[in-house]
Amino acid sequence: MTASNHCDFSADDFEAIAIETSEGRLIRVTGSGLCPSSGWELRLVAANPGVVPHPESLWLELREEPSTRGPRVVTDTDVEVMVEDSHAQEVRIRFRWREGFTLPVVPASAPPQQSGGGARRRADAAVAAAR
Fold it and tell me: Whole-prediction pTM value?
């Protein structure tokens, strides 16, 4: 964990998939992070509403709502958003407290760029290192 008052995120734990439909193009962004306790709520919201200077990039901001209840045990927490966008080739995820990262947008028919479960792998590695 990078800070006890924030969840820990890695680009390896996120993906952006373009879904072509008869009514347009949707981008599904999914990911996960390791949060300091259970009950945290994560949201991806538009980070650049209005005129977009770079239509090839979709900017999202990850927002956290900390839990005020439950034990302090590191918990894998998921986040997902669907965005209608006809031009984006990449998704830039930004945070208010740390450096962000960029994900390529891949077609729904393409194989995933990652194996998923990265946050779980990092948690398992942290537990193993603590032993």
Answer: 0.79
